[in-house]
Amino acid sequence: MPQTTFPLHDRTVGEIAARLPGASGVFRRFGIDFCCHGEVPLAEAANRRQLDLGALEAVLGDLDPLAIPDAPRETGALIDHIQTRYHQAHRRQIPELIALSRKVEAVHAGHPEVPGGLADLLQRIWGELEVHMKKEELILFPAMRRQAADRIAVPIAEMRHDHDDHGAFLAELARLTQDHTVPEGACRTWQALYAGTAQLRADLMEHIHLENNVLFPRFEKGA
């Protein structure tokens, strides 16, 4: 298998995730924020998580840089991918998770590990994310397809700001669910809820990464 040839320790985690197929999955496994804080160098990210940099580099180095990319490279195809794979998925996921959460919070109100406030958090995520996605679909993405780079600096900055808010929501989601850890003996509804919140977290991280680290820089640099 071809191995990664470019040095990693002085690269940012966002750049590595954008260039190296499979890197985003490694970063999720090690708890490294590659989407909202992709500007952090790998060495610093490892230090923040108290990880062995050499071991992390070894795992990344075993990835195949010639593997099929995680998402299309061409701009129009990438936008299509973001909309079909992530926008549509979020619209299916979150309302279902809100309903599951309200049921778990009501039925297990006396349980010491019940995720109190989770439904309200998911409702906030849903409200803000839907507005965010509509702004992309109606304003930003069409301008990108037209290559109207002179008109999108402000919308991109707004989207990045929204992403920071979404990252804070994800951190709270992980806290309320104890990193999506189902209590012993939890019912199937609770199990389904935490499986769904874990998938939402993974999907939203990948969604933000593709925009912050792959799509947006093409226009911010005047590409």
From TrEMBL:
Compartment(s) of residence:
Cytoplasm
Q: Provide the GO MF annotations for this entry.
A: metal ion binding
The UniProt entry, under Gene3D superfamilies, shows: nmb1532 protein domain like (1.20.120.520)
Q: Which UniProt keywords apply?
A: Cytoplasm, Iron, Metal-binding
Q: Does the keyword Ribonucleoprotein apply?
A: no
GO CC terms in record: cytoplasm
* Annotated ranges, domain Hemerythrin-like: 80-218
Q: Which NCBIfam families match?
A: FeS_repair_RIC
Q: What's this protein's name?
A: Hemerythrin-like domain-containing protein
Supply the source organism for this entry. Paracoccus denitrificans (strain Pd 1222)
